[in-house]
């Protein structure tokens, strides 16, 4: 079973803003949350759910990922948007959530900072570049 699909950061923001039950799950590492920043959902009255897809510092996949989603109260029938740095880990997270019963799991394209450009710099696409609200951790 495939996840519900890919959305742009702007599309995710629109649903998060307009649908009371929509959830944003940031699957980056604790280090990224602290040093790179976090999406700011305060305008929606919501908090970002923080669940690592891969553990810091060893990079091991979090075997308890979907159990942590459940413990965080993420409803299985809500629109859920998974966000990572560049949109790769969030695909894996959306696939895992779908396998475990979340029926509306989406990947946020380009993640928080986007892919590398030709000079291997980030912040060329993604949540931050789209001008969506965020805060420094």
From TrEMBL:
InterPro entries: Rhodanese-like_dom, Rhodanese-like_dom_sf, STR4-like. Residues 18-124 form the Rhodanese domain. Coiled coil: none annotated. PROSITE patterns: RHODANESE_3. It holds the Pfam family Rhodanese. It comes from the Bacteria. Gene3D superfamilies: Rhodanese-like domain. This is Rhodanese-like domain-containing protein. The lineage of its organism: Bacteria, Bacillati, Actinomycetota, Actinomycetes, Micrococcales.
């Amino acid at each position: 079973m495939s996840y519900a699909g890919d959305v742009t950061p702007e599309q995710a923001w629109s649903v998060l803003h307009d649908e009371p039950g929509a959830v944003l799950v940031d699957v980056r590492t604790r280090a990224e949350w602290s040093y790179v920043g976090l999406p700011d959902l305060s305008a929606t009255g919501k908090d970002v759910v923080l669940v690592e897809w891969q553990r810091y510092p060893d990079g091991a996949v979090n075997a308890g990922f979907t159990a942590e989603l459940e413990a965080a109260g993420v409803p299985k029938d809500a629109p859920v948007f998974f966000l990572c740095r560049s949109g790769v880990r969030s695909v894996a997270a959306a696939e895992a959530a779908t396998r475990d019963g979340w029926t509306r799991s989406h990947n946020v394209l380009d993640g928080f900072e986007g892919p590398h450009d030709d000079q291997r710099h980030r912040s060329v696409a993604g949540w931050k570049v789209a001008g969506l609200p965020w805060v420094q951790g």
